[in-house]
């Protein structure tokens, strides 16, 4: 058995996004406040709990991708003086103008009024990558031990109690054999482990399944694909927020797009964020979010924002869309789930940063109180759920609790449902107080069924021009993705035979389409039933987790690769 070093902490946070960093920063603030009160009153004892945070990216922010228009509510609660802090918070621009557009293939029109959930005055356009780096600096100043480049590979458990996190091994070759630089991943033992892995975390997935933490509905997700462009000044002013609906998505596919005016590049040009979210509960087995974004950019209402510009960065990431009733139980013996890992995302507003931060703060308060009492059992950590229910974050999530599910009856029904919920402050929804849904992959139709008599995918090839539209490999290049090539494949296909047999016949190998980074390819292979075999280009993987979510047979398991591997997002 591999020997592993063990390091003891009071709190271990897994994931350096807004949720994990808010947990760490607020925890440190609570310790400071407690000790100051002890010093002032002369009563009680000062404490010095040990807290660490691990992040799988080589540096904080490198795996962070968001739209992103940030509602400042979360940051106001976490760091009330952030607007005047030094170093300055990296906000790109305050929103000064917003509107929504309905797109058709040939054009589109501006909505006469902006739907209330898409109003953004008072919010800020940010780069999540930069925001996370800035928060990381604050956490380190407060004495948090931040370890980037260290993936949590496994939760350490004693029965139902989470007692720590096992870090990923380094230096294993693609056949699973140790190389000369082999280093066994250590164990970070924690009295409380806060899981802040973001959407579809690999540890979260296992824990939810093992301890049956599922919510009333299974979680459903979306995939967001995004590009950042440098465009001539004046073409898209910093602080302009445009949301799009309709084209290129069909009426049975949930989703929408955005164009956000960001700040200036060093060369004095403006940056623009353009992206599209596609619900990962679509029917079309050939759905390809990357391709849909390319189509969206060709639309005559969208293209002028990018004309004469240059694509700088590309990225893709999933996001939890299921809402309040899809949230798992977020507490247990020795653990708490926060942020996207807990499913606290407002899909009606496409906003999760403020909620991720708020959940992290409430988790920090719970962890601090539990450690003070010396009880980190589920009977004590349940306080986290109670705090969330009593907080503004619950009120916000309650109002949009059925938003995504409403679209399962089609776009029109979804919009009516959303309008109804908005008008009545979430009090009544169109059909029911609690709309049900199934796991997203179950909505995908088989090729024969979806394409009817033609029986073959009808996906017409898009001729990318390399200026406005790009093929997947060019896009992956712009994501800065890099992995050590000689390591075990981190996309574990548990039944590979299915790929060259049933999946060819039934779904036409949808992994080739749904992966936004060209990881999955069907290669010609003589002697197989259909003459093809699955090839996995794992080094292209941008860690979006779409394959883990959308594979129709659920035989793809995304696990953490060697530390530091993955995309290198900047400005995203
Ligand atoms: C395309 C897109 C557009 C969006 N637009 C907006 C928007 O405009 N406004 C808004 O407010 N929200 C938006 N969101 C949502 C928002 O980005 C998320 O809700 C928010 O980032 C969640 O924060 P988090 O800390 O929970 O997760 P994340 O930001 O995902 O951070 C999780 C971190 O954990 C790390 N990690 C994961 N697993 C492990 C592991 N096993 N070991 C170590 N580290 C690990 C990841 O690398 C990552 O850095 C958008 C999301 C997407 C995908």
Provide a short characterization of the protein structure.
With 572 residues, the chain is of the alpha+beta class. The protein folds into four domains: 6-66 and 133-215 and 327-399, 3-Layer(bba) Sandwich (FAD/NAD(P)-binding domain); 92-127 and 220-320, D-Amino Acid Oxidase, Chain A, domain 2, CATH 3.30.9; 404-434; 441-558, Alpha-Beta Plaits (2-Layer Sandwich). It has 18 helices and 24 strands.
Give the topology.
Elements: E1 6-14, H1 18-41, E2 51-55, E3 69-70, H2 73-78, E4 91-94, E5 97-103, E6 108-110, E7 124-126, H3 128-141, E8 145-148, E9 152-158, E10 161-167, E11 170-172, E12 178-183, E13 187-195, H4 202-210, E14 221-231, E15 240-246, E16 255-264, E17 270-279, H5 289-298, H6 303-306, E18 310-320, E19 331-332, E20 335-337, H7 353-373, H8 378-381, H9 383-389, H10 392-399, H11 403-406, H12 411-423, H13 447-450, H14 472-478, E21 491-493, H15 496-500, H16 502-506, H17 511-514, E22 520-524, E23 532-536, H18 546-550, E24 556-558
The structure holds flavin-adenine dinucleotide.
Residues 14-20, 54-57, 63-70, 128, 151-152, 196-199, 201-203, 224, 226, 275, 277, 317, 319, 339-341, 345, 350-354, 356, 560 line the site of flavin-adenine dinucleotide.
